[in-house]
Amino acid sequence: MKKKTKKSNGDKLRAKRIWRIRDSIQKLEDIKDRIIAFLKGDAETSDRAWITDAKEVYYNIISAWEMLRAASEGKDKYITTTDAFLANAKSRCAQCSSELGILGRLGNIIDSRLQEIFAECWDTINTELEQLKPEEKLKPPTQRVIKESDTEYHLPCSVCGEIAVSFMLGVSKSSKKENFCCIGIIHGGGLHISTAKKIFAWLEQENIAQIHIHLKKNSIIFEEGIDAYCPKCDKIYCNRHYDTREEWDDGFYDCTYGTCPEGHTNLIHD
Ligand SMILES: [Zn+2]
Ligand SMILES: [Zn+2]
Questions:
Q1: Distance 260 CA to ligand 1 centre (A)
Q2: ipTM of the assembly?
């Protein structure tokens, strides 16, 4: 009986903390309105999609917060949805910030305020979310390479075991042609069919470093190599454990950096 009371107290406190995030979100709404007014007042930017970008920062945070509330009420499936909204919000904020950054002194002042409030919202939601995630999720893999079949291999995250990279050879349903592809944490795409044998042989040897080097040298799509791979650690990380960060330039996507749990920062997609 005592245990039950204790738990519900904890839940009440959590619900209160989550409700209070509203104050930070209100500040984000205010800065969103300020950005829109600023962009509308500038003849050059008033007709651009930049206003939508600013709105999306706010709406993704609001959605993340609503999903977090649902998750905290025991609806576990909303944990993943909250994560997705947080990732979208981060991306839109980086884009919005790159746009404000080129709009003179006032643009920069508004941008710093946006960064500050956004970090406050994002960090508090993420902290609550991390506490809701079941602990058993962190299952370091027992293998470096998972062989599904002779034509399908997966590389699990070295921290949590989530599949981060897949190499697959198969026949496309539409073209009836044989396809060899790689799907990573940021992007995926086709690889030259003639390299399949070589890459599968390296996967058999668990020689991920060699595949990484080979892709960097020979592939245009994967010119930064395997996006989930940290060469300094010689390890694979999922999107979350590689702590990926998009860079935007004047509102356009530029590249993505990842920082592994050991603190190594690498350019993983350009
Ligand atoms: Zn992971
Ligand atoms: Zn590393």
A1: 10
A2: 0.98
